[in-house]
TrEMBL record:
The keyword Cytoplasm does not apply. PROSITE patterns: OMPR_PHOB, RESPONSE_REGULATORY. The modification 4-aspartylphosphate is found at residue 51. This is Response regulator transcription factor. Gene3D superfamilies: 3.40.50.2300, 6.10.250.690, Winged helix-like DNA-binding domain superfamily/Winged helix DNA-binding domain (1.10.10.10). Keywords: DNA-binding, Phosphoprotein, Transcription, Transcription regulation, Two-component regulatory system. InterPro entries: CheY-like_superfamily (IPR011006), OmpR/PhoB-type_DNA-bd (IPR001867), Sig_transdc_resp-reg_receiver (IPR001789), WalR-like (IPR039420), WH-like_DNA-bd_sf (IPR036388). Residues 2-115 form the Response regulatory domain. It comes from the Bacteria. Pfam families: Response_reg, Trans_reg_C.
């Protein structure tokens, strides 16, 4: 998933980003409300981790903006602990509310629990590549591309985990879980077919390890 972490404390953003990226997620960081709004308007996010107190605006105002314009789940972070503060945060549209100090793993777990609702009717976009999950459709440069069911599943697996490298065995287990004894080279053939139909630059070979999405195309 693509996660925006908004907090004026650099250490907090760095630690949270590290946890999410180790989980295979792609992170964006903002230390002000203004920079957060810029990312929100430009990037198709799946999750926002939002500090209540920012130097230039209240996190509640950003939360209201998100809920008025986008369907992105918001986890609010705050040092305020009164019930009135929590109620106010939920009234502003926050999907979850976490009081500082917290363990980063808690935030990751809470985000993953909120994720299914954020992925309904979701379109994953990388450069000129669009994956329409519900329709299982691929569009490149506004042209529909025909992939086989297994080719689509592999491309979706990589796209949903842009930071993670998947070995051939990982892909076999994810896509063909009913038959773990399949020839691993079938994965190479699927990747070759996807590259031919879509574009080779979207899938990166990590020699000796496997395959991943090429991050260089994410913000093209």
């Amino acid at each position: 998933m693509k996660v925006l972490i908004v907090d004026d404390e650099v250490k907090i953003t760095e630690v949270l980003a590290s946890y999410f990226e180790n989980n295979g997620d792609y992170t964006y960081i903002a230390h002000t409300g203004e920079s957060a709004i810029q990312v929100i308007d430009q990037v198709p996010l799946d999750m926002i981790i939002l500090d209540l107190m920012l130097p230039d605006m209240d996190g509640e105002d950003i939360c209201q903006y998100v809920k008025s314009n986008y369907g992105i789940p918001v986890i609010m972070l705050t040092a305020k602990i009164t019930i009135d503060d929590k109620v106010n945060g939920f009234e502003m549209g926050a999907d979850d509310y976490v009081v500082k100090p917290f363990h980063p793993k808690e935030i990751l777990i809470r985000a993953e629990r909120l994720l299914p609702s954020s992925h309904k009717n979701h379109i994953i976009i990388f450069g000129q590549l669009e994956l329409h999950k519900d329709e299982r459709k691929v569009v490149v440069n506004q042209q529909s591309i025909q992939l086989t069911p297994h080719e689509f599943s592999i491309l979706l697996l990589l796209a949903e985990n842009p930071k993670k490298v998947f070995s051939r065995d990982d892909i076999i287990q994810k896509i063909y879980s009913f038959d773990s004894d399949m020839n691993l080279r079938i994965v190479d053939q699927h990747i070759k077919n996807i590259r031919k139909k879509v574009k080779e630059e979207y899938i990166q070979t990590v020699f000796g390890l496997g395959y991943k999405i090429n991050e260089k195309v994410i913000n093209k």
